[in-house]
Each structure stands twice: as structure tokens, then as C-alpha cells.
Amino acid sequence: MLVYYVGAGIAQFSVKPAMGVAMSMGMTWAYVGINTLITAVVGVVAAAGIASIYYELRLIKEGAGPQQVAAVFS
User: Which of 14, 13, 73, 3 is closest to 45 using CA atoms?
Assistant: First the structure.
């Protein structure tokens, strides 16, 4: 989790200065587009991480394999 948070922070804060320059030049659409893209990527990675942690915890606690986990959602 720590690696994820550090990576997400670096990704989001590394683009902010460049987008500040773009906004000062009147290119707010570029800022909104890139910020949305970064937020989407970070969200996808977070969702995949949560799903994998859920699966591993179920496997450790109950010995539930993929079929049992899939049965929960059907």
C-alpha cells in the first residue's frame, strides 16, 4: 500500500507544475484532460489492488478458490 500511495502521489504531483504553466497560457482543457487521465489510471490500479487483496484474504482465511469467489458475485 505504501508503494502504491507513493507512486500515485509522484504521478499526480509531477504533472501539476507543468499543468500550472498550461493553465497560465489559457489551456485549461489540457489540464482537465491530463488530470482526468491520471485520476483514472490511479483509480484502476487502486481497484485492481483492492480486488487482489480481497482474493488473497479469502484464500488465506477460508481456502476459497476462484470458483467460490466467483459464486459470491453470481
Answer: 3
Cβ-in-10-Å burial (0-12, 13-18, 19+) of 8 comes to middle
Q: How far apart are CA 14 and CA 19, in angstroms?
A: 9
Q: Which residues contact 4 (CB under 8 A, 6 or more apart)?
A: 45, 46, 49
Residue indicated by cell numbers 507543468:
18
pTM of the model: 0.61
pLDDT of res. 1 = 72
Domain span at residue 22 reads: 2-72
Q: How many domains does the chain have?
A: 1
Record the cell numbers describing residue 42, joined without a space: 490511479
d(CA 67, CA 4): 28
Per the CB < 8 A criterion, the answer to whether 32 and 22 are in contact is: no
